[in-house]
Amino acid sequence: MAVKKILLYPDPLLLMRSAKINIFDKNLVNLSKDLIDTMYDADGVGLAAPQIGINKRIFVMDCSSENEEKDCRVVINPEIEHASEELGSYKEGCLSIPGITEEISRPKVIKVLYQDVNGVLQRDTYDDLWSICFQHELDHLNGKLFIDHLRPMKKILVKNKMKKSSKKKKQE
Ligand code: NI
Q: Which of these is catalytic: 68, 86, 103, 137?
């Protein structure tokens, strides 16, 4: 398919809640392929549809390590059925917020429910990086970014940094 342009914070489409997907057709297959191509092209481990300007509840992720085979999951209408009380902390980044990584803490293990590209219901348990990535991408579908998990003061600092760098880019 095609590599799409990734929207950058503070694009308003990144801050919207995305709509549930009810139609599982060729267009959805094409959208999932665009997401996969764009994610691999950008060297990301996950990418959500709003990041390419489409506010629908679909994301892709591949958290396999470099010495493993590619393992790309297409996740549609995701829900978290259960989240562990135990938290894990990880230095997260986002393709829509380039140049910024911050330590974010989230539930370590999650039980999830979603549909695949054919509309078939999938249940899974994710741990470690897969769990972090799933939660990060699900946040995107709710218009939430990883910096929204930061303490207020820290968030303001990061936002100002982003605004400055986007202004600079516009002037160039
Ligand atoms: Ni992201």
A: 137
Cα(150) to centroid(ligand 1), Å: 14
- Domain count along the chain: 1
pLDDT band (50, 70, 90) for residue 164: confident
**What spacing in Å lies between the alpha carbon of 26 and ligand 1's midpoint?**
26
Q: What is the pLDDT of residues 87-105, one digit of tens each?
A: 999 999 999 999 899 999 9
Is 5 contained in some domain? no
172 pLDDT more than 70: no
Is 137 annotated as catalytic?
yes
Closest residue by Cα to residue 74 from 126, 14, 134: 134
Helix (H, G, I), strand (E, B) or coil at 119: coil
CATH number at residue 154: 3.90.45.10
Burial of 32 (0-12, 13-18, 19+ CB in 10 A): buried
CA of 137 to the centre of ligand 1 (A): 6
In tens, the pLDDT along 106-146 reads: 999 999 999 999 999 999 999 999 999 999 999 999 999 99
Identify whether the C-beta of residue 78 lies closer than 8 Å to the C-beta of residue 134.
yes
Separation of 85 CA from ligand 1 center, angstroms?
Answer: 23
